[in-house]
Amino acid sequence: MTEKGGKEIACEESVLDDKELEDFVEKQKNINTKRKMASDLKTRYKWCKSIKEERLIEDIPPVELDRLLGRRNFYEPDTLICFQRSLDRYLKEKHKTYSIIRDAEFASSRQKLVACRKMLKKEGKGSRSKASESLGDDEIQQLWENGALGL
Questions:
Q1: How far is the C-alpha of 69 from the C-alpha of 84, rounded, in Å?
Q2: Is residue 81 part of a domain?
Q3: Across-strand partners of 8?
Q4: Considering its fold, how many domains does the chain have in total?
Q5: At a CB cut-off of 8 Å and minimum separation 6, what does 98 contact?
Q6: CA-based Rg of the chain, rounded to a whole angstrom?
Q7: How confident is the model at residue 133 (pLDDT cuts 50, 70, 90)?
Q8: HSE (CB half, 13 Å, CA atoms) of 139?
Q9: Is residue 69 part of a domain?
């Protein structure tokens, strides 16, 4: 296999040392995924700091992390799912053996996330167009007559 720049890379782990293999894998990751994960983690750290949680996410024991993830957030419903996926990807990169998306020990926070998403959608948040509707001719004429529009 050839990497950009013409340098030969063997895919066998025995040929590459750990650092070279780590660098090779890192270069294969999608840049947009990395940016999104970094942005989501930054937002999550700000939120944690606001509730006086100063530890790094990867240093929080699973039971406490489940409790923390289950706390009420005021983000858009789809944003909550993106945060969860980014955090799971980050923890996997930190060589954690658990998954906040799949493992039973995080069932409570997942259930709360589903409930929170439903509640936010009922409140009219997320998955709905935020585009404004254009005014009709009658509405524009009424605004002129009321003095709301003028030259």
A1: 9
A2: yes
A3: 2
A4: 1
A5: 62, 91, 105, 106
A6: 23
A7: confident
A8: 4
A9: yes
